[in-house]
Specification:
Layout (H helix, E strand, L loop, with lengths): L18 E5 L7 E7 L2 E10 L4 H5 L6 E8 L11 H4 L4 H16 L3 H4 L3 E10 L4 H22 L12 E9 L2 E4 L3 H4 L4 E8 L4 E8 L6 H26 L1
Parallel strand pairs: 4-5
Antiparallel strand pairs: 1-2, 2-3, 3-5, 6-7, 6-8, 8-9
Helix pairs in contact: 3-5, 5-7
Length: about 240
C-alpha cells in the first residue's frame, strides 16, 4: 500500500463523499427521494399498481412483486446521449442495474405481506460521477419505505412488510490502496472496482467485483468488504434519519 496516496477530492481512503437524501422530492409520488453521493444525483420514485405481473397470475404465485427501472438522463454524463427509449432498446448496463435494484428491494421485503400488488421503483440519474447504482439502491429503499408507510396508513397493507434495511456502496483499489465510495475519476483508473449491497444484519445481498486488467488478493478483498460495511452503516444511519 502506498504511503503518499491522495484521492482527487482529498478524502481519506475510508471516507464517503458528502451524502444527502431528500425525501418526498417528487410531490405527486407515493414515495420519493433525491439521493446524492457527491456529484452523483439520482431521483428514486416508488409507485404502486394494484395488480401483479401476468406470470404470477399464470403460475398462481401469491403475494406481491417489486421491480426496478433505471435510466441515465441524456445529459447525466456531461456529453449528451440519446435516450434509450428513443433507440428502442436498453443497453446491457441498464438492464443489469435495474435488475439489481429490483433484486435488492425484494431481498428485504416480505412479498406476502405486500399483498397482490406491484411496486415500481424508478431510478433516474440526473448527474453521474460514479456510483450511480449504489446511490440508486440507497435512495430506492427510502422511497420504498415512504410509499409502504402511506399504504399502511390507508389500510391497504396491515403488517409492515420490510424485514431488513438495505443500502449499497462502492469500494475499490486505486494505486494499491483500498478506498470507499469511488467517484468517476477514481472508478475509471481503479485496478479493482466493486459494488456491495448489504442489509442492517450485516448480510450481503450482492457483491459485484472485478479486477480491471489486474488481480486482487484475499486480504485485499477482506479490506474492501470491511470498508463497504463501514460505509453501508453510515448510509443506513442517514436513511433512518431521513425516513424518521
Amino acid at each position: 500500500m502506498t504511503t503518499d496516496f491522495v484521492r482527487p477530492d482529498k478524502r481519506r481512503p475510508d471516507q464517503l463523499r458528502r451524502v444527502r437524501i431528500r425525501k418526498n422530492y417528487v410531490r405527486s409520488a407515493l414515495g420519493s427521494a433525491l439521493c446524492e453521493f457527491g456529484n452523483t444525483r439520482v431521483i428514486c420514485v416508488a409507485s404502486v399498481e394494484e395488480e401483479v405481473p401476468r406470470w404470477m397470475r399464470a403460475q398462481k404465485v401469491t403475494g406481491g412483486w417489486i421491480t426496478g427501472e433505471y435510466a441515465m438522463l441524456p445529459y447525466a454524463g456531461g456529453e449528451r446521449k440519446q435516450r434509450e427509449s428513443t433507440r428502442g432498446k436498453l443497453d446491457g448496463r441498464t438492464v443489469e442495474i435495474q435488475r439489481l435494484v429490483g433484486r435488492a428491494m425484494r431481498a428485504v421485503i416480505d412479498l406476502e405481506k405486500l399483498g397482490p400488488r406491484t411496486v415500481w421503483v424508478d431510478c433516474d440519474v440526473l448527474e453521474a460521477d460514479g456510483g450511480t447504482r449504489t446511490a440508486a439502491i440507497t435512495g430506492a429503499f427510502v422511497a420504498l419505505c415512504l410509499a409502504l408507510r402511506k399504504l399502511q396508513k390507508e389500510g391497504l397493507i396491515t403488517d409492515w412488510p420490510i424485514k431488513q434495511q438495505i443500502a449499497a456502496v462502492s469500494v475499490g483499489i486505486l494505486e494499491g490502496t483500498p478506498i470507499l465510495d469511488l467517484c468517476y475519476a477514481e472508478d475509471s483508473k481503479a485496478a479493482v472496482d466493486m459494488n456491495v449491497v448489504m442489509t442492517d444484519a450485516g448480510e450481503f445481498v450482492e457483491v459485484q467485483g472485478s479486477g480491471e486488467e489486474a488481480t486482487f488478493t484475499t486480504a485485499q478483498l477482506h479490506q474492501m468488504l470491511a470498508l463497504a460495511e463501514k460505509g453501508v452503516r453510515e448510509l443506513m444511519t442517514l436513511q433512518k434519519r431521513v425516513i424518521g
